[in-house]
Known about the structure:
Largest sheet: 5 strands, mixed
Structural class: alpha/beta
Strand order of the largest sheet: 6-5-4-7-10
Number of helices: 8
Strand content: 15-25%
Radius of gyration: 30 Å
Shape: extended
Order of helices and strands: EEEEEEHHEHEEHHEEEEHEHH
Number of strands: 14
Amino acid sequence: MRFYNSRPIPQGFQIRTVTLRKKADGWYTSILIKDDSVPDYPTPKEVNTIVGLDMGLTKLVHCSDGSDFDNPRPSTSKKEKRTLKIRQRRLSRKNIGSANRKFEAQKLARLHKKHADKRSAYQWFVANKIVNKADAISVEDLNIKGMKAKCKPKPDDVKQGRFLKNGQSAKRGLNRSISDASWGTLIEKIQYAAAKSGKSFFKVDPKNTSRTCSKCGVVDALSRFGEKFVCTSCGHEAHADKQAAGNIKTRAVQQNGLVIKKLKKVRRDSVKPKQLILFETPTVESTTGKRKQHRARNSFPRCAWEPANSIEFMGY
Length: 316
């Protein structure tokens, strides 16, 4: 079969498995290669820097250093939801088994693939940015399948065979947002990028990370109200998700026995240039460097067609 060789197989690697996938715009092959001579490096116990990550929906990732990454919502934004609704409605109006229905199904599949490609490309961008932040990365070991589980039914005691509202209709929108964010694949990409760069990667228990105060350590569900965190014990105020990212970082250090090295301060013993006082006449020594730079910039020969000044160019 003819195929596009996107990258060559490096020397020393052996092909283990080849997987073929049929997608909306054609066939794709993925090749798994392995080199047994590459050793597995042990996890270091001393690191210079470590960053904790908290996954979210308003922001895709909150980092313990105070930074965050936006959530582009490739399939749940207002524009994309409207486009998807129109495509699905066109498909449902076509006759089953007709050529027009197959054509509309192909267009709908290409739209879903477009959303998946946007999500994957942005996740690789975020993963590489995060890995370049620190020597070690810590994330929560989330049970995403359990988070998207259906709400338990509430039977009505008065009317037999009837059920009360359990909030499943509201949770359906939350489940769509979680699926659109795709935290699981993002964590896999971060782990892959960390292993490729030689960085350490840790997963911690997510229990009460957003309810624990990073200052006094008190766990209270009343401390968090939406995206705001106010400790009921010591009064510490912070962003709830960034507070959780700091707790994830601390928990990774404690569970794995990590030691964060203190960077040595570099002495600056170089002589500082003299600062001119107001209305002081500059000396030759203070302006030597500037005059050399000015000569270097003006040392290039002038082009033959370029006029010496605007007056000659205008013909006066």
